[in-house]
Amino acid sequence: MHTLSHLDAALLLCGVLSVGASSCTSVEGIRGDGTPFQVDASWPQVLSNNMILGQVSGAAVDSRDHVWIVHRPLTLTAREAGAAQDPPLSECCIPAPSVIEFDQEGNVVSAWGGPDSVETDADGDPIRAWRTGERWPQSEHGLFIDHEDNVWIGSNGAYDQVVLKFDRDGRRLLTVGEWDVTGGSADTLHLGSPADVAVDSATNAVYVADGYLNRRIIVFDATRRILPESHARSPDLDRRPRLRRRPC
């Protein structure tokens, strides 16, 4: 069986986007080992129950060569998710769960997570999302499958500030950081819109790209204890001018 590399996953992510609200242009090229590649626009299979994707913000491959994605249901407009409105605006469509596992043929193996209900502020902007009594990110960002096939996601919504760890069935195992609390790059207890995460299979150290508000790589152990590798940063990092840009 062909094992998907990180390059394969990136290309598959581009193909997956064509199923959701965004699209990719045709991509062709040659891998490092000389193998030609081309995006398969028919992958994955059409989602069932009139489900559609929002912005796809992460893709990864597990030990079974299954492809996982995380997407953002809250990026779908009311018209795109017409069947989910009250009252419904149309027969189609409804947002798919945020995390989806596909086999190599593009069939859905499992799907879970997402903002089942959303509270909004006076301007109608989402400020909280909840799932089975627990918060869910306003903006999912980044996806990593570790050596035990646990699923990690980051979050870069204004009220998120957490990295979440789940088992492959969607049971939450760990929350790193604190919802809606951030304290800058010198704060070792809180995150600042963490963009992505990776886990070292040899040491179980958790490396967090932190992020959109902070400017550092912070490293935790399995008990969320901060590790010395985290402190490779300039003391005046947070005082430097920040570029104006919109997080993606």
Topology, please?
Blueprint: H1 6-17, E1 28-30, E2 36-38, E3 51-52, E4 55-61, E5 67-72, E6 94-95, E7 99-102, E8 108-112, E9 117-120, E10 126-131, E11 134-135, E12 140-145, E13 151-155, E14 162-166, E15 172-177, E16 196-199, E17 206-210, E18 216-220
Parallel strand pairs: 3-6
Antiparallel strand pairs: 1-2, 4-5, 5-7, 7-8, 9-10, 10-11, 12-13, 13-14, 14-15, 16-17, 17-18
Short description:
The protein has 248 residues and is mainly beta. The chain contains one helix and 18 strands.
Keywords:
248 residues, 1 helix, 4-stranded antiparallel beta sheet
Q: What is the average per-residue confidence, as pLDDT, rounded to a whole number?
A: 79
Number of helices: 1
Describe the strand arrangement of the main beta sheet, using strand numbers.
4-5-7-8
How much helix, percentage-wise, in residues? under 10%
Report the count of strand segments.
18
Proportion of strand residues: 25-35%
Q: What is the distance, rounded to the nearest whole angstrom, between the alpha carbons of the first and last residues?
A: 34 Å
Secondary-structure class: mainly beta
Sheet with the most strands, sense and barrel status: 4 strands, antiparallel
Rg from alpha-carbon coordinates: 19 Å
**Globular, elongated, flat, extended or rod-shaped: what is the shape?**
globular
- Elements, N to C (H/E): HEEEEEEEEEEEEEEEEEE
Spans where pLDDT lies below 50 across 5 or more residues: 1-25, 239-245
